[in-house]
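Progress against Task 2.4 (sequence-to-structure conversion) is shown through the following example record, which the project officer requested during the mid-term review.
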Amino acid sequence: MRKTFLGLLAPTLLCWPLVAAEPARPNIVLIMADDLGWSDLGCYGNDFVETPAIDRLARSGMRFTNFYAAGAVCSPTRCAVQSGQNQARIGITAHIPGHWRPFERVQTPLTTMALPLDTVTVAETLKSVGYRTGYVGKWHLGNSPQHQPANQGYDFSAVVSGPFLPGRFRVTHGDQSLKPRPDQFRTDFEAQLAEGFIDRQQDAPYFLMVSPYAVHIPLASRWDLVEKYRRKAAATGRKLPHPVYAAMIEELDGLVDRVVAAIERRGETDRTMIIFTSDNGGLFRRYDYQPEADDEVTSNAPLRGEKGQLYEGGIRVPLIVRYPPLVPTGTTSNAVAISYDFHPTIAAITAATLPANQTIDGVSLLPVLQQPAAALNRVAVHFHFPHYHHHRPASAIREANWKLIEYLDNTDEVELYDLAKDLGEQDNLAPEKPGRVADLRQKLAIWRNQVGARLPIINPFFDPARMADWYSLRNATPIDSKARKRFPPTERD
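Structure tokens generated for the chain above:
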């Protein structure tokens, strides 16, 4: 296997000398934040929140400007990362278990409630070539014990559940002997678990996925950081991001700092690829926002939209990759890439074989990681979110700089944007370019058919007077938005 791989790569090694010094099988650490927006970091233009560790990571590696989360919410993207597939193939198209509007124009499809056990995950691909594998943090790909990381290729797992404040969270699956200190915040605990896994590794290469809950709602953070950003907001007159949200981003930055430091203490900087990204775009407000009770959280400007939408603000997210033997320092790539590219990229760099009986929708990013201006073997990326959440059910396609959003709520509405000229998606060109619209709609329909994407159907119970009512899929009861606690908590409790 190894001789064959080197033989195939021989011409590539001559073209890119950096690869010759590359360790055969590097350690890989994938950090995936939750709900972190494209413009939430200093290295992506944020001048309010302090993210020195993540900014250093970007300066020492490659920063992507056109990277997409595969889904507009968490579970779909997590499915895509593990499988290397667009999540529409598996049917995990909403966050598990999701919610619905029973009186809307259309009935939306149910989502698959767990990552199928016969799905070959990126961890299982790496175990086939001798990797030790670990998972820390949020999983959200099934709630039952049998659908946890331990049964999906991870040797060590600590699935953490519960909100951020001390005493509110715990390890629910995996090594439940691991317990936080009484005064410990969740992001600090997740960093500690990641450090512990790295420190325990010996001779075998390892793969660690760190999935902190930050910066998901309900927002809460260390009191000193919240006060710091309250003072900063008062001094600058800045209303967004919310001080609690800003504090959580700095906590996330601290987790990244500790993971990087753990690798560097072991002298493994040149033997470890670090990937940092987010599972979807930033959250602006709750899906059931109540103006009299809820705070607004952040803005994804200059992008339009937020989590739960197929506008750029809901799906375009940060991606930073550091691996000194391969990735040129301080570089930027404009290549269009997406979450399900991680599985084939990691397989390529470790000489692992992708699963033979599992369609892989992603492409290896290895050419771009070596040469930022390189082209990828890709025509388009596709998105499918057939649910009501922060917006309407929709699919989308991006081909070159053209992006089409097609609504699936029996309205026959489409929007067309030229992202090269209109990053903020303000100028809908659909009325002016019917030919382009027809072409992209046809391609999107063909793709949906190829992957077996589930579609909404006309709702016989449509009621305009009740169409905004939310119901829980956990117990099929109405969601009483007015009865819940204020969002987010901004006081010490």
